[in-house]
Amino acid sequence: MEIQEIKDLMTQFDTSSLREFSFKTSESALSFSKNEQLVQVAPSSERVVFTQEPPVTSSLAVQEAVVSAPTKEVVVEESKVETVVAEGEIVASPLVGVAYLAASPDKPPFVAIGDTVKKGQTLIIIEAMKVMNEVPAPCDGIVTEILVANEEVIEFGQGLVRIK
């Protein structure tokens, strides 16, 4: 199996909704999994497991492997891939509850990524004990990231929105 074929399979697997994928030929075997966080390379059985780390860090290590059948050798190459991390101050949840991004389902959201906000402007509403609590912007800025989904249960101190 050629390295380009392996890269193509990795790309297709990464963009798919599959959690695991195995591919076997008489010469080699590949297994991809999004469920594990360790990389295993077992040259004796010619099995290679590819994994993807969570996108929490600012860079991810991409593992590429080539399995050559005649020599039973496994070569692993590692390269760095930079990810874009949103900048700005995180607005944390002041209480536990359910986050609402809009006043009602038929209304537009309070803020969207790229919106300019003023200090005191409502970013999100948190429902706690049947009381709707507005979360105001702590400063003027631009919304660079929305960290919660509509109707998501959130914890105290959890990040809600990032403002730059």
Summarize the structure.
8% of the residues lie in helices and 45% in strands. The protein is mainly β and 164 residues long.
Radius of gyration: 22 Å
Query: Strand tally, please?
Result: 14
Distance between the termini: 47 Å
Helix content: under 10%
- The residue-averaged pLDDT reads 75
Order of helices and strands: HEEEEEEEEEEEEEE
Throw out a few tags for this protein.
8% helix, 4-stranded antiparallel sheet, 4-stranded mixed sheet, 1 helix
Characterise the protein shown here.
It is built from 1 helix and 14 strands, in the order αββββββββββββββ. The chain has 164 residues and is mainly beta. The protein is elongated. A hairpin with a 4-residue loop joins strand 1 and strand 2. The strands form 4 sheets. A 4-stranded mixed beta sheet has the order 1-2-4-3, with no helix packed on it. A 4-stranded antiparallel beta sheet has the order 7-14-12-9, with no helix packed on it. The chain is 8% helix and 45% strand.
Topology:
Layout: H1 3-15, E1 20-24, E2 29-33, E3 40-42, E4 47-50, E5 59-68, E6 73-82, E7 89-92, E8 97-100, E9 116-117, E10 122-128, E11 131-136, E12 141-146, E13 153-154, E14 159-163
Parallel strand pairs: 2-4
Antiparallel strand pairs: 1-2, 3-4, 5-6, 7-14, 8-10, 8-13, 9-12, 10-11, 12-14
